[in-house]
Specification:
four-stranded antiparallel β-sheet, binds zinc ion, five-stranded parallel β-sheet, single chain, alpha/beta, elongated, binds adenosine-5'-triphosphate, Isoleucyl-tRNA Synthetase, Domain 1, 19 helices
């Protein structure tokens, strides 16, 4: 049985995620996890909240709560929203877990033993107005690489270059805006990534089938300018994983914590360990190639801004440790989803957030639109017009309408059981062929994680059923040849079951409703299309489901567009 390890970029803890975050990481990861399970893989699907760092501290301060308490509450909020969107994590952990403390401290010790960590006195920005050292991303200024004037001290979001705050031209505090900054000396641990450059380069070259978006970002960071830089992996903060060498104090590092970007990806492993501790499972057979993980295929999902950390920094930790850890096999990255003429923004509260989305429509509407418009080859824009028209066309007119017509017609002419009589003719044989061909294409796209193509193929599979029904016209055939109409409707009911199975990774709730209406728990993936379309035998009872997808009205669309045009506080 193939074994697939899937991780989604960790949602940061400081607020509810917007639809851009969702479609750039957790949702496509869920799609793939569901698909792999349906194809019989043994799947481990891990996600967690990313809880350390200054934004969490500041958010907690704003909420008037101790940071640990704030994070615990926000974890629950994010967990509930993930459940609301049907995200089928095997475990949704926390980067602040004891497991992650231990593993992060372990990796730091290993890297030190390998000669890859150096203690350096560094100059760090201290803000007099704020009374504290400013973490990298809280120093803003002009990028020395491209001249963008709102570059952050950790990274320029314009040119993606990894920066240090002291690289910035005309720096200012992002917390207070103060330019009364002083560079003070403090000691920190540095991970000597430059020593790992050639090894990482070779490792990237071995990854033959990675998306161009992923490898181009990684190569740029490896080779542009002076190449891959050594990286400070500790910070002068209170909240985080204490700097220890395994379980012993690290001289000179008292009172410091690891940098959030060092501990966050390690949480993929620690999250699996949390799962193991909760269930009695074995996490090492997913992560240690000496303990059974050598047949695991590991796939990561993330937005493009996270690529450097996953394609270089995290592999630097794993390879640098010289222990047999599983590294990523396929790194699926996404461009950005923009919102109605601008960008989604958590800090500005701009866009639609996961809680708001669920408050106006069931999750499958969002899942379908987001996945069928996922920003794979370029940035994509969410507009209410496009959302309403796609949902209405694809889900209501094509899929929902098919289910409704077939079940209601059957109930009115034959009753609520699969009708007996008649046999398949040329039209049915042709449909089997069409669907078998389309299914092969659908699988190929899903296997390659080409999500838009997969969505288009799934839609075409729905359309094929509609066209068959339109041509067969059982409502007309019924008058002269009720047996023929029975065979046609039997096909229609079996198509509904087939659609439930194939659509499940995209729209799991509707899929469950369709299976329930068909009175079956048979959700086996169709290995043989002909047999799959005969799975519901004559006499099998079904019910007419409630409306699967109600159409979005123009009034609703305009109302939502107005309601979500501003920012939330
Ligand atoms: N507009 C977007 N479209 C697609 N993916 C996005 C978008 N914004 C963020 N992401 C991705 O969402 C995932 C979770 O991000 P995270 O919780 O760290 O928020 P973030 O990147 O800080 O976003 P924001 O700045 O809007 O809060 C990451 O993989 C990130 O790359
Ligand atoms: Zn720049």
């Amino acid at each position: 049985m193939p074994r697939t390890l899937i991780t989604s970029a960790l949602p940061y803890i400081n607020g509810i995620k917007h639809l851009g975050n969702l479609v750039g990481s957790q949702l496509p990861a869920d799609l793939y996890a569901r698909y792999c399970r349906a194809r019989g893989h043994e799947v481990m699907f891990v996600c967690a909240t990313d809880e350390h760092g200054t934004p969490a501290e500041l958010a907690a301060r704003k909420a008037g709560q101790p940071v640990a308490e704030y994070c615990a509450e926000m974890w629950q909020v994010q967990k509930d929203l993930a459940d609301g969107f049907g995200l089928s994590f095997d475990h949704f952990g926390r980067s602040s877990s004891p497991q992650n403390h231990r593993l992060t401290q372990h990796f730091a010790a290993r890297l030190d033993d390998e000669g890859l960590i150096e203690q350096r006195a560094s100059r760090q920005v201290y803000s007099h107005a704020d009374g504290r050292f400013l973490p990298d991303r809280y120093v803003e200024g002009t990028c020395p690489n491209c001249g963008y004037d709102r570059a952050r001290g950790d990274q320029c979001e314009n040119c993606t270059k990894q920066l240090d705050p002291t690289d910035l031209i005309d720096p200012r505090s992002a917390i207070s805006g103060s330019t009364d900054l002083e560079v003070r000396e403090t000691r920190h641990l540095y991970l000597l990534q430059s020593k790992l450059r050639d090894r990482l380069d070779r490792w990237i070259d071995e990854q033959k089938d990675w998306p161009i978006l992923t490898t181009s970002i990684a190569k740029k960071w490896l080779h542009d300018g002076d190449g891959l830089q050594d990286r400070g992996i500790t910070r002068d903060l209170d909240w985080g994983i204490p700097v220890m060498k395994s379980d012993v104090p690290w001289p000179g590092m008292e009172g410091k914590v690891f940098y959030v970007w060092f501990d966050a990806p390690i949480e993929y492993i620690a999250g699996t360990a949390e799962w193991a501790d909760a269930t009695g499972g074995d996490w090492e057979r997913w992560w240690r190639t000496d303990k059974g993980a050598d047949d695991v295929r590991y796939v990561q999902f993330m937005g493009k801004d996270n690529v450097p950390f996953h394609a270089l920094s995290f592999p630097a930790t794993l390879l640098g440790s010289n222990e047999p850890w599983k590294t990523v096999d396929y790194l699926k990255s996404f461009n950005y989803l923009n919102y109605d003429g601008g960008q989604f923004s958590t800090s500005q509260g701009r866009g639609v957030f996961m809680d708001q989305a669920l408050s106006i429509l069931p999750s499958d509407y969002w899942r379908w639109w987001l996945l069928s418009h996922v920003p794979e080859s370029s940035d994509t824009e969410f507009t209410w017009d496009n959302f309403a028209s796609s949902v209405n066309k694809d889900l209501a007119d094509v899929l929902g309408n098919f289910v409704s017509r077939v079940t209601k017609f059957c109930r009115s002419r034959f009753g609520e059981a699969v009708p007996d009589g008649g046999t398949w003719g040329a039209a049915e044989e042709a449909l089997v062929q069409t669907l078998a061909t389309r299914l092969a294409a659908y699988q190929a796209h899903m296997d390659a994680i080409e999500i838009r193509k997969a969505a288009a193929e799934l839609r075409a599979i729905w359309v094929a059923g509609n066209e068959y029904l339109q041509d067969a016209a059982p409502w007309a055939t019924f008058k002269d040849d009720p047996d023929r109409a029975a065979a046609q409707i039997r096909m229609g009911l079996n198509l509904i079951r087939l659609y439930a199975v194939l659509s499940r990774p995209f729209i799991p709730a509707a899929s469950d409703a369709m299976l329930a209406a068909m009175g079956t728990g048979d959700d086996a993936w169709p290995d043989d299309m002909r047999a799959a379309l005969m799975a519901l035998p004559p006499g099998h009872a079904f019910t007419v489901p409630d409306v699967l997808f109600a159409k979005i009205t123009d009034d609703q669309r305009d109302d939502w567009a107005a309601r979500f045009s501003g920012t939330r506080d």
